[in-house]
Amino acid sequence: MWFVPSVLQGWGLVGAIVVVCGVWQLLRAERFRAYRFLGVAFLLVVAAFAIGGGRTGYGAGAYPMVIAAGCVALTTMRGRWLRIAAGPVVVVSVVAAVVYTTPWRAASEFSPAANRAAALGPSVYSEGGWAELTAATVSAYRMLPATQRGDAVVVTQWYVQAAALDHDREAAGLPAVFSPNRGFGYFGTPPDTARTVVYVGSDEQQLSRWFASVSPVGRMDYRLGIPGITRDVTLWACTGPRQDWSAQWPRMRNL
């Protein structure tokens, strides 16, 4: 149920006030009667992702409508209390923005993230490590025998790893990049001719389900990286897929 407080924290104090005001207006104000369903839809979306353990960005499509309603309502309000409250709210929001969103601390002052949940999202933990991930993958790929590199592909445990590697793939000289994780698993299937894989992440036991041979060929451990994504990551050379990719890939895909 961390979804709701995380959403409010992400919006900041002013944003939270606007959203709460917008929901209230959509549900209660007579002038918004025709749009009352939008307030109900917003609450249902937030409730669905909060109960289901979704991320704050999943319901982003429902936010603009309540923000718009809140802005309309606040601009038409009059009264001394509004002028008195506006000053402190703006000051607190500015201070919060400076403290929490600007790089005023050196990276050396941060400790490694305790877990992946604490490191995901906009933070110092997601800013670095991507170039190092590419370098580690290139090194692992070049360690393969020349006879295997010709039909090799890169597969990653997490979709964010695949996205980062695919972005730099041509410049780095990497082969095609795939991932069975989330939507990336539907972007493409490794060709059946790919008998060798540089697998980024996962573990030997899991990979042995899919490949006849699995051996570690590299390590990625960026100090302020995301655990399991850019920190504490093993790279593997996997050969001999147990089935053709066209049959195996649908079973490997995961959400």
Strand-residue fraction? 5-15%
Tally the beta strands: 5
Largest sheet: 5 strands, mixed
Extract low-pLDDT stretches.
Answer: none
Q: How would you state the average pLDDT, rounded?
A: 85
Indicate how many domains the architecture comprises: 2
Helix content: 40-55%
Structural class: alpha/beta
Shape: elongated
**Strand order in the largest sheet:** 2-1-3-5-4
Our measurement of the CA-to-CA distance between the termini, rounded to an integer number of angstroms, reads 20 Å
Radius of gyration: 24 Å
Please give the count of helices.
12
The secondary-structure element order is: HHHHHHHHEHHEEHEEH
User: What oligomeric state do these chains adopt?
Assistant: single chain
Give a summary of the structure in a few sentences.
The protein is of the alpha/beta class.
Describe the structure.
- By secondary structure, the protein is an alpha/beta fold.
- It has 2 domains: 3-102, no CATH class; 124-252, no CATH class.
- The chain contains 12 helices and 5 strands.
- It has helices at 3-28, 36-52, 63-76, 80-101, 116-119, 124-127, 130-142, 146-149, 159-167, 169-172, 204-207, 245-252; strands at 152-156, 177-178, 196-200, 211-220, 233-241.
- Strands 2-1-3-5-4 form a 5-stranded mixed beta sheet.
- Helix 1 packs antiparallel against helix 2 and helix 1 crosses helix 3.
- The longest helix is centred in the N-terminal third of the chain and has 26 residues, at 3-28.
- The radius of gyration is 24 Å and the shape is elongated.
- The model has no long low-confidence stretch (mean pLDDT 85).
